[in-house]
Write the structure tokens for this entry.
Amino acid sequence: MLDYIFRRIIGAFLVMLAVATLVFFMLRLVPGDPIAAMLADAGSEEARDAMIRRLGFDKPVPIQFLKWFGGMLQGDLGNSIYGSNQPVTRILAESLPRTLSLAFISFIIALLIAVPAGIISAAKKNTTADNAFSFFAFLGLSMPDFWLAILLIIVFAANLQWLPAIGYSPISEGLWPWFSHLILPSIAVGTGFSAIIARMIRSSMLEVLKADYMRFAASKGLSDSTLLLRHALPNALIPVITVIGIAFALLISGAVVVENVFAIKGLGRVLIQGILNRDYPVVQGAVLVVSAIFVFTNLLVDILYGLIDPRIRYS
Amino acid sequence: MSKFKDIEWLAKQELKDAYDFDHKDPLFSLSKTEMSGSKLSRRATLRLMAAAGGLTLAQVLPGLGPKVALAAGNSGGHLRCAWAGVAEIITLDPARINQVLQFQIASNVLSGIMHIDNSLVAQGDLAESWDVSSNGLEYVITLRQGVTFHNGDKFNADDVLFTFNRSKDPEKSIHSRVIGNVNEAIKLNDHQVKFVLEKPQASFLTKALERASGRAMTIVSRGALASMGDSQYGLAPVGTGPYRVASHVLGQGVVLEKFENYYDSDRPKLDKITIKPVDGVEPLAAAMEAGDIDYIGGNPVPAQLVTRFKSNPDLAVDIKPGPGFQSVWLNPWRDYMRVDNFNKPIEELKKEKGFMVRLALAKALDRALFIKQGLFDNGVAAHGTINPAMGYYFDDSLSKSSEQAYDPEGARELMAAAGYPGGKGFPEIKLIVTPNSKRLGLVVANIYKKVLGITVIVDPKDFSVGIEQFNKMDFDMRLGGSGGDYDPDDGIVDWMQTKSKFNGRARNKEIHPFGFFSSSEADTAIAEQSVTADPAERKKLVQEANAITSNKVACGFLYHPVDILVYNKKITVPTDARIPGLHELDRIYFT
Amino acid sequence: MLNKEPTENLKGISRFRFIFSRDKKAPIAISVILIFLLSALFAPWLAPYDPNEMTLDMMSAPSKLHLLGTDDLGRDLLSRIIWGTQISLFVGVSTVFISLVLGVILGVVAGYYGGWADMIIMRYIDLQWAFPNFIIAVYLVAVFGTGLLNVIVAISLAFLDDFARVARSMVLTLKEQQFVEAARTNGSSNFRIMFKHILPNAAAPLIVQATVCVSYAILGEASLSFLGLGVSANTPTWGLILADGRSFISQAWWLGVYPGLAIMLIVLSINFLGDSLRDTLDVKENLL
């Protein structure tokens, strides 16, 4: 077992390194001169040369890579080449809690919807309730998240003015502001997610309900709800949990567009803006973090799977 | 009516007087005493501005109108601002600022040595008085005493020197050119600094040392820089201004707080100002209408919101003619509109196919339609860089007399004569725009389709990519222009001369002998007007140069933007705080 | 049961007919998809106006003249949405097709041959797996630029790992089964075994995966357009219409509602169809 875990961890790190290298070199292919953008109207030849020297662009690309790589191993991801040249680690450190907050609340909202929906759907398979839930699940899956975001803004922020239209408020400034800024975006992100989970729970429950041990429990004369909640659900959740791990990482990518609509400076928005600004260090750092989240979530899931299903370990 | 005429007459007198000097005189026909002291008289300020190369009626007029007394006004309060069209205020470090929206905030946090207010009185900001040598090359500035930085450090001559050295270094500051004429800065004592210039410079007091236009001598705190480091300082600079930065979280906003020890006890009025960058149009409107926001600054207010804000009884909308111009730039090196020599008389140029196309493209611009559809009627048609806000220099007959004036039939005839009747056979060309101006590009492309039958493909590129291509002459057409200053120089000197810094500066000079335009006639006129004293004479030269650029199609001039200020009527924005493009937050107060 | 090829259990068309007749969703879904398909094919004739024609009738509400209203440049929204169908469907289908073909080749080669080929291909799949699909697409478009071709390439590459994985795992499961042994002892070549015996039996989950991917591809294209990284600035695509309309939403709510509705309807229909297919083909969900 430990051997398995060890192998997977090494694998994960190798993947991350490959990703970092790939991203570094590919980024240099992107057209557009970040220096010109930064200097805009005010630049002269000397200012331009000075900036190039300062940012190390005058050195050959492989040297730049080694420099960046070495720095990364020490925890220094360089500085943003844009604006006030914030250290990339700082930018990412500030953006990560926002995306994680968004993912967290979306997750909660999604579960609050999905779990009861999934259970009821399975318990009352093929009745109106099931069909209705299935339909709404499909609806949620099919809605573009940015569209839902826009609709939510129109209704709740612009018209009813119950909630703020954009922005993020850190917890340090109060729990309610933090939460109120995250409600609309979380609904936008969580809806699609909840649909997937609901359907997963449903089909997983259905599998479980068919199993022999359920009939055995039923024959003991237990009530429906006990059967459902104490016997079926825990078993049904096992495969679901492994999917949730991956899906959580997907939440983070789904957040990219929603963060854009709500102007929340989370990981996704930092990445997109970095790409648009040709801010190489920021993009490299953001890609590293996103893939790290993905890779390690998968790792966790694989380990869990390995724990549950011994066959996998030896493949 | 007559009162206005009186004022206008007065203004013209002042203008005449301002330009009445011997331009060989290093002191610009002012006496040494006039140029020294603790306050430049209005007359002296006007003279210096005229000598520096630009004083216009528009600038002279405001100071002559009935003065709304700066009321004692209610002190205190928390002003909530939104900065439009921007996701984050990237930096407030004067050495790195390259966007007006950043400077709008920094000018309230940091001080300059001089400050010119809306009535064009040059006052000392951190300077208490100054003395000029008779050869106009040495300025001794006596600094205000008892001024402190926000962090408690005492302000003295060392800070001036520090700022000077920092700004002179192109590695540290992008504005090093502004003080290029200064040979050295010497500390005489703790409160006196001497600047030694290379040549007499009229704009030294009014521009180089001025807090708003100069930015080279916006005084920074060396103590804070040392302890915070450049990038932190860029987020939350420590200065001597009326407000200090309490906090700045990128993407969330800046919080400014009243600096209790500001040297002028009358200002600032407000206790606290929060500035939130608001990227989207909808959220901005919603916030303003819900009363979450009291004031909008930053990038221009989106045109489509103007009518909406105007009809809202709680909001005040103030529109002023803005400086600047925007054009459709045409690349003369493209085969189908090639012009390799603009130095021929117009009638001869019109016989060339390349110029015919170029002129057709300019004539086809239905500016009225563009302003209506693209700008929701918030703009003025342009036929040259000189805009209505420049008042005295503006020639409104140009809109009819210019070769570029909208003339669809004429445009079509030219295209046909050039070999593309009805647009047939004309290649598909690309119009470079920024993502934000994509809409405007679509309107232009549509106009070209309707009038000339040609296909123009709108090509949104990020500003960095677009400007790179523009500088290298690697484009077909591009939509762009200048935010501008009230000074005619800003348009014609920076754009219309062969050696202008925006005229293809990164091009391959062997393939492209000049950028997008080159006329030796215009070059001469522009160079001369820069040093011409007599306003009538200067006006003639400016208009001559402007007409050349218009008639010979330096570009397809499109429109002059207007400056729109929107705020909640809860606050009062006094006239002297209303300088288009800037936000003097220390003079605003709650009514 | 284990000795027979799984495809023998599928009694062809009749099974389809049986499921579809019971399932109310599928026929509706198919009809909707057909409507969109027809819109795409016959856009020039169906659209009441030129989608790029600007009028001075800016931001006018839905009316008899303009059934879904006009946008901020006076262009007819209905026409733009009809024309937008072309790009959405074309991108949706072509990306999945390309991805399917490439992914299957990779997956089959990896699963069947094992050894070095498998290791290299698996490493690549793992590498790509380290990224959410959408981020890959965004990144590729940022590197290579926007435009129809680049968007298709970007989205196709983004789905590659999904198809490869499914194909590979199916091959791994199937190649140990007895019918393959049988074919081998009969002397069939590897190629024949891969494509005549294994692949058809792997078809079912691949088909279902494909329908899922089509809906993601359509959503992905819309998201890219929305972020300004889409096909072009001039052609109306649904994501672009939403992105452009965003700044005018409270003056023109129809700009925010109808394009999104179009996206939702087509994706919904495809999802329903996929669901029916899954039931019909009896594919277990955990293969996705």
